[in-house]
Amino acid sequence: xxxxxxxxxxxxxxxxxxxxxxxxxxxxxxxxxxxxxxxxxxxxxxxxxxxxxxxxxxxxxxxxxxxxxxxxxxxxxxxxxxxxxxxxxxxxxxxxxxxxxxxxxxxxxxxxxxxxxxxxxxxxxxxxxxxxxxxxxxxxxxxxxxxxxxxxxxxxxxxxxxxxxxxxxxxx
Length: 172
What we know:
rod-shaped, CATH 2.40.50.140, 19% strand
């Protein structure tokens, strides 16, 4: 029962680390400290749960068997803490793509989903930006019916574009 309580404490510490890591920075622990809180939580949780499993598997009723269960739990806890340390560092140092801006909209191809009136007024177009479909308000010099393939020539705002129809083969 003691090992299960230790494991539960590890789960609580992990929840604190994941949900409020900035609040949980204590001394050398936390995101900016020597040991990330996730590694501490992994160590304590694995110590408790591996100890409970080992003591139940060994039917630990004597001090010698309890000691063996504690040693098994400690080894499992060290391995888990090392893995948590490596994974948390990898997640913190992960490279990501830059956030798309309106300049990335210019030059993309798409399709009209709501008819675009000529000159004044907006319709809607769908383009793919960073592999994701994005629906934007669109203006054009000529009226464009739904389903027309378009090319973005300008992006006056983050949510609106100026488009023109792309030539379709055989209809030039």
